[in-house]
Amino acid sequence: MTEKRLAAGQLNYPGIGSTEHGRTPEGYASVMSRTYIGKGTATYLRVANGILTWELQKRSGLNVRTESGHVVPGARIVSGFGVGPFRLNAPCEVVWVRRPWTGEGPQSAGFGYGTLPGHPVRGEESFEVEIDAQESVFLKVTAFSKPSNWLYRVGGVVGRAAQRYITSRYIEGARQLAADEI
Questions:
Q1: Residue 31 phi/psi, 5° resolution?
Q2: CATH number at residue 58
Q3: Does 124 fall in a domain?
Q4: Residue 167 half-sphere exposure, CB side, CA atoms within 13 Å?
Q5: pTM, full prediction
Q6: Half-sphere exposure (Cβ direction) of 65: Cα atoms closer than 13 Å
Q7: pLDDT digits 0-9 by tens, 25-45
Q8: I want to staple 66 with a disulfide (CB 3.0 to 4.6 A). Which of 77, 104, 115, 162 is the partner?
């Protein structure tokens, strides 16, 4: 019996997993945002939990449909925004996951997911929370992409503005997670 997937198709770009190692495939635009969001291990763990349970996407205002309540390699997600026929869906698959480890010291937790057919771009995006030796906590969002077809290529300026806007929403979502009480 074949399992029906939330989103069809296979990852559709080169360099799968590149957001984990910082290498952007040739011909793809890349962006990276690193923002201070708080201090302390408890803050780090709250944000890590929010990232690894899709809460960051939800708090950013995206509608989230997923196969798994926790981020795991291979899980598929369709996130989107808009209403009715004006909804833009973005199907992705998780390509790497890093969980927090117990213990002190600098570390990071998060995941990266890549685009599937039907996404407006081809590429990958990652969401990581980092804690440094001084216990400062940062949200890091890294992405590389290019338009998936001519229509999205024509709307390049709008697409870049949308990417900046949704990144600002991720930052706000991380700040909300950082401020939540356990």
A1: -140, 150
A2: 3.30.530.20
A3: yes
A4: 19
A5: 0.87
A6: 9
A7: 998 988 899 999 999 999 999
A8: 77
